[in-house]
Amino acid sequence: MKPNASRPACAKYKTFTMTPDNQALGPEQTARALLYVQLAQSIRELLGDETVVVPPRIVQPLHNGGSLFVMPAADSRVAITKLITFVADNANRQLPAIQGDVVVFDARDGQRLKILHGPTVTARRTAAVSLLAAQELAPEPQGRLLIVGAGVQGRSHLEAFVEGLGVREVMIASRSRHSADALVAHALSLGVQARRTDDPDAAMSECTLVVSSTSAQAVALRALPRDDAFVCAVGAFTPKMVEWAPEVCRHVASKGRIVVDTREADHEAGDLLQAGLNVTAYDSLADVIKRRSSSRQNNPSIGPVIFKSCGWAGWDLAAARCCV
Fold first, then answer.
1. Are 311 and 285 in contact (CB under 8 A)?
2. What is the mean pLDDT of each run of 10 residues along the chain (324 residues)?
3. Cβ-defined contacts of 244-248 (< 8 Å, 24+)
4. What is the rounded CA–CA span in Å between residue 324 and residue 194?
5. C-alpha–C-alpha distance, residues 107 and 303, integer Å
6. Burial status of residue 35 (CB atoms within 10 A of its CB: 0-12, 13-18, 19 or more)
7. CA–CA distance from 176 to each of 111, 148, 186, 196 (Å)?
8. What's the pLDDT score for residue 173?
9. Which of 72, 152, 179, 270 is spaced 20 to 30 A from 88 at the CA atom?
10. Which pLDDT belongs to residue 91?
């Protein structure tokens, strides 16, 4: 967002008198309240809000391999708890991998304000975090985009990068040709040039923006990114998950730059941990925002950038601030 642009609606909640309506928003209503550019701005503002408190999330393993996530967060006005489940093989059941809700409260009197659709919040706030990171770190923010993984996160990142960066050309890779073709069709409906690729490693040499949003059950990418590439790795958000080959992560660590979304990634960033890297040594997105002079755009010669996103309840709090 340009400095002289008007403040987004989601940033104005601080001046409103919040009235409980106990309204449960469905997927479409939640999406309409969370426009990507405005949500990215809300995330930027949240990172500078010293009243924000985000305790470590609870991840409860479920029988049969799923997980229950309990993620609270609060600032001086709003408190939230996100309750979602993640079951990686739910596609076999014709169910989404992520299900649940975000419950929003007035932090002053404890009244419930809204219930947001959890999967929609997760998809859109994750993509908005990636958008903010790309705005700060990508040397070619309007370059060709490669999306690996054509599920919910692939779709949300496509929309966010088209809306927020002005991307006009995209390549889509997926284990499922049907899913890839469906996302190509959606990209075309957005007015973007799009095509499927069956070899994402080969496509890496053509793209300055890369988003990996696979199920992260095995290494999906082994090629080295371009020296001017911005890579957003979102699929692996636990220590045992992985998308990128360890040698790729080590290459970027030595020749370029790694940034993590929050310090929670220190013990959750599967790609980096499995590469044997010391995640605590890397800047977080908050560090980048606070030290704008260290951004990739001001250091164009530092090589490729990996932005590792693992998730944080603070991002859900930023989304809630857009909805009250």
1. no
2. 44 52 88 97 96 94 93 97 93 89 97 96 98 95 95 97 97 96 98 98 97 95 97 95 98 97 96 98 96 52 90 97 92
3. 244/212, 244/219, 244/220, 244/271, 244/275, 244/306, 245/219, 245/221, 246/274, 246/275, 246/276, 247/222, 247/275, 248/221, 248/222, 248/223, 248/224
4. 36
5. 44
6. buried
7. 45, 11, 16, 11
8. 98
9. 72
10. 82
Per-residue model confidence (pLDDT) at position 5: 41
Residue 128 pLDDT: 98
Which residue reads 């490669």 in tokens?
146
Cα–Cα distances in angstroms (integers) from residue 248 to residues 201, 219, 223, 226, 231, in the given order: 11, 11, 7, 11, 11
* Structural domains of the chain sorted by starting position, each given as residue range(s) with its CATH number in brackets: 20-121+315-323 (3.30.1780.10), 130-312 (3.40.50.720)
**pLDDT of the residue at 178:** 96
Strand 193-196: give its sheet, edge to edge: 193-196, 169-173, 145-148, 209-212, 230-233, 305-308, 257-260, 283-284
Strands (DSSP E) contained in the chain are: 23-24, 58-61, 67-74, 78-86, 98-106, 112-117, 145-148, 169-173, 193-196, 209-212, 217-221, 230-233, 242-244, 257-260, 283-284, 305-308
pLDDT of amino acid 189: 98
